[in-house]
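Hello Y.,

Per our agreement to keep a running log of every chain we model this quarter, I'm adding this entry. I've kept the format consistent with earlier entries: sequence first, then predicted structure.
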Amino acid sequence: MKKQSIIKQPVIKQALGESWHELADIVKQHYDITPGTHAEITVKGTMDEVYHSDIAKLFILTGKIFGALVPYRGKNIPTTVKNRTMENSNAMHWYRTLFFPNKKPFIFESRMVNIKDNEIVEYVRYGMGVRMLVSVKDNALVFKGIGFHWKISDFIIPISNWAVLGTVEIIEQAIDDKNFYMQFEMKHPVFGKTFAYSGTFHIS
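Predicted structure for the entry above:
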């Protein structure tokens, strides 16, 4: 298999192109680390709410296997997110730690890669990924899910949104020069909102 070359530019900047410059400064700072280099950004904040529906409970075990879902509900959950890039990787790596009361800290890891203009894939374990279009709206960063896929070696098995928990939408927008608000939501065409979390963060 041919080794993929590393583009030394932030992953979201690769995807957005010139639209990158329309992002609010605090949002750009969150993503301004470059594959092919050792870099890290830490953000800290509080999730106002972490939610999943009763239907989503049926997917929790599968989610644990792939490392893809937070299995708890809660409000006002302290959260730390470390984003890293590495010399030998074309991805932006995510390490999220959520501190639920009376539970071990829950760690949710993933990696985000640009695959073409305005499109990224965020992978969890075993090659399971969600494809998302990225855009800028009113200086905010918007991710919109267009489907899932399972990458096994060089093979990709497409999975439609309705076959799992629905369509992903993420919005990250500035509150002021030092703080930003993030909202993640999954909606199924039949079952409605299945999974969501949102919160306010600052760069540490």
